[in-house]
Amino acid sequence: MTAERRRPDPLGDIELLLRSRYPLILLDTEEEERAESLLTYLADRLDIPLFVWTRTRGLRRADLEEAVYGTSKPLSAITHIESARFPAVYLFKGLGPDLSDASLSRSLREAAAPFEKLDGAIVLVGAGLEPADEIRQIAASVALPPPTRSEYRGLLGRVLRDVREKMDVEMEQTAEDTNRMLENLTGLTLLEAEKVLTKAIIEDGKLAAADVARVAEAKRQLIERDGLLEYYPMEESMSEIADMGTLKEWLQKRKSILSEPDRAREYGLSFPKGLLLLGVPGCGKSLCAKAVATEWRLPLLRLDPAGLYHKYIGETEKNLRRATSTAERMAPVVLWIDEIEKALASGSGEEDAGVSARVQGSFLAWLQERKGDVFVVATANDISRLRPELLRKGRFDEIFFVDLPDAETRSEIFRIHLAKRGHEADDFDLAALAAATDGFSGSEIEQVVVAALYTSFANESTLTTELLADEVSLTHPLSQTMAEKITALRHWARGRTVSAQ
């Protein structure tokens, strides 16, 4: 049986490193205050003081207000630690930008060296710290996992208590409402969650069912602030997708892992990695990505590969790390990568100084080794631009091919889009329309319905089968205009992929 994955225990990990006399610890997290709280507890447990350095206040003992004189600059603070040789935990916040300085890195190494024999260590906290090699050689890294549900629940209690000291607060949420609200907080730092909850309560002086949506909207704004990821609310469901029987069955089998994670883990199963949807443009690949999140009741994040690239050296790679780190922090989550060939197109990358090649390598490594329960749904239209490494097992659990719909499916697509727009499908000759749209994709059929509605609205007439048929006759589907390319794609997929239908 597969070994059960060890649950993250940052408190135990850092205590072990301190007791093992690791002189330098890199604590990977954006939550500086949470890190300080954790180290305060550990320092007290080990009976040694905690000192905290910030750029604005300098180096000070955590339980005192006054800072050590002349330690506001990083190098002066590090020099003080080296000369003092005092058993303590020294926490540095915001030192990341200075780690590229060679003299500072050397001084940091020399200041940390005595802690191989003294109690304590120097701890650097920050997200994505990139120390020089000489620092990395003596450092141990610990990632602070996202807050747990119990931490969010405790935070909610504290926020309610603090707000009630200033104003009356009505409690109108049911237990289910509260659970849904806490689910929407997943992935936020405790500081971000505190601001979101406080604002939601203060706005109307109560905690109500409507606050569930307010928290979800606030979370969307926080996620999208970097412009790398988009947050999608749950809208589409599998019932609104015609056919795709094989894909639906595949997803249904794996849905139980979400509801019974402990039983699945005991059975030797891990969270599924994801799937790659290849196929003809307009046949529902993107719709499937949205529907997976809805069916599994998971947040959906969309990564636009084109948004990763930046003109400055190193920024593109940092954008990728930020995007994937956010997805891992939000876990469990569905990450939708639309037209993945834009990010992982084959080629040398020489035209952009190797940036594309580095991004491709980092992206492939993340797909293989990603941390957290991130289910990746990638879509692709042009198989010729995909790197062979992407198609091997391990990156994705399965590769599905989404083909043009058959007659029965085309009839169902007409039924879905007519019903969505308030028209009774039984009033139309769906069989005739399905026969007339041979070679049409789902999106092309949708546009036939939309165009016919515009015509009937402009003419102040009733939508009829004849109007729909007229729009069909005016439409030249992609299967005709790009027949050679689509034929080649369908031929490649035969025997190499699983049919989604």
Q: For the residues shown, what is the average pLDDT?
A: 84
Return residue spans where pLDDT drops below 50 for at least 5 consecutive residues: 1-5, 347-351
CATH superfamily of the largest domain: P-loop containing nucleotide triphosphate hydrolases
Helix content: 40-55%
CATH topology-level fold name of the largest domain = Rossmann fold
DSSP strand tally: 15
The top level CATH class name of the largest domain:
Alpha Beta
Q: Report the span from N to C terminus.
A: 33 Å
Strand neighbour order, sheet with most strands: 9-11-12-13-10-14-15
Whole-number total of structural domains:
4
What does the overall shape look like?
elongated
List keywords for this structure.
501 residues, alpha/beta, Rossmann fold, seven-stranded mixed sheet, 20 helices, elongated, disordered N terminus
Describe this entry's structure for a reader.
This protein is of the alpha/beta class and 501 residues long. The chain has four domains: 10-143, Rossmann fold (3-Layer(aba) Sandwich), CATH 3.40.50.300; 149-226; 238-401, Rossmann fold, CATH 3.40.50.300; 407-481, Helicase, Ruva Protein, domain 3. The protein has 20 helices and 15 strands. It has helices at 10-19, 32-46, 74-84, 102-112, 133-136, 149-164, 175-185, 190-204, 210-223, 245-259, 261-266, 285-296, 315-330, 355-369, 407-420, 430-436, 442-458, 465-474, 478-481, 483-493, and strands at residues 24-28, 50-54, 58-61, 88-93, 120-126, 139-143, 170-171, 206-207, 229-232, 274-279, 300-303, 333-337, 374-380, 398-402, 498-499. The strands form three sheets. Strands 9-11-12-13-10-14-15 form a seven-stranded mixed β-sheet. Strand 11, helix 13 and strand 12 form a beta-alpha-beta unit. The radius of gyration is 28 Å and the shape is elongated.
